[in-house]
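Lab meeting, item 3. Inverse folding demo.
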């Protein structure tokens, strides 16, 4: 079992930056692939970025490539999402996700989800 708690959401102006954190419980965090998803009002949840267990392999949705960076610190059981050059279309609830493989996370999410943190980007 893994419990995930996101933090770091808030209101930011277009062009600004935010860093989201996801703290995980459990001693097996380093064995999980992790991902960030988001869901905007009236839209389906979509994958934003994923990272493998070691942090050596990452994936980004085209809409955030070059602006967002996913990283993890296995010693702190935490995964991060650094968001730069933010746009109003980045407004959404952001969710942390843990799964067995990056493929499973990227294709719809692994077994464990956080409660979400809201991000609003004003124009």
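The presenter then showed the designed sequence:
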């Amino acid at each position: 079992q893994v419990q995930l708690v996101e933090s770091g959401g808030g209101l930011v102006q277009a062009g600004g930056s935010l860093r989201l954190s996801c703290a995980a419980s459990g001693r097996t965090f380093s064995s999980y692939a992790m991902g960030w998803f988001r869901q905007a009002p009236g839209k389906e949840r979509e994958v934003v970025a994923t990272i493998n267990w070691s942090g050596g392999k990452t994936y980004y949705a085209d809409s955030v490539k070059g602006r967002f960076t996913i990283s993890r610190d296995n010693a702190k059981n935490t995964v991060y999402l650094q968001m730069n050059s933010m746009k109003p279309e980045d407004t959404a609830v952001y969710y942390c996700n843990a799964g067995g493989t990056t493929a499973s996370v990227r294709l719809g999410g692994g077994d464990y989800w956080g409660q979400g943190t809201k991000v609003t980007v004003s124009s």
